[in-house]
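so my prof wants the structure for this chain in the tokens format not the other one, which i didnt know existed until like an hour ago. anyway here's the sequence
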Amino acid sequence: MREWLWHPNLLTPNRPDINDYKVFPCVKCNAFCVYKWLSILLAVWLGVAVLVFVVGFILGYHWLHLSAVAGLDPLEMVLFAIILFFSYKAIKTLLPIHAQALFIVYEIEDLWAFVKRIFVILIVSSSDKEPETRNAAIYWTIFEIVCLGIGAIWGLYLLYTFYKYLRDLQLFKEQNKAGEDPGEATTMNAIETA
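here's what i got, hopefully its the right format
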């Protein structure tokens, strides 16, 4: 199986310690643990959103109404499902190729979330609603954009720290393959997947 989308040119002479990969503000946990728990929360959230969509379709609601209730549109559901697939693969196999693919999907999802909210501002600002209602919707959407920006920056920081651990671990394995005995490799894999 392929391990990289792009191969870094780094030397990793020492085995990476998982506790060296912390992410602010979770200084007690390592990035691997934080990423794993956030992936579980994302899976639960996506499961609830899909359930809302399915029940809503059965009851005959329009998908735009369901999108507002679930907090996701169908494209975001697909993107989050792809994110969960690559997250699961990265956590399970510890291969950096999956984390590298996550960068691409995360960027597409973040870009879509921003573009969607810009369209909301454009549509609301040209609507014929009361000025107070229109302004409140615009201010709320701007607040969402700011929160999304902060969340996107922190999410990419977490993903990069998670990726650095997988990258350094894979580089260490590749660079130390010649002097490795089978018992040590089994022990290393048992520690990593625990």
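also thought this was worth mentioning. The chain has six helices and two strands.
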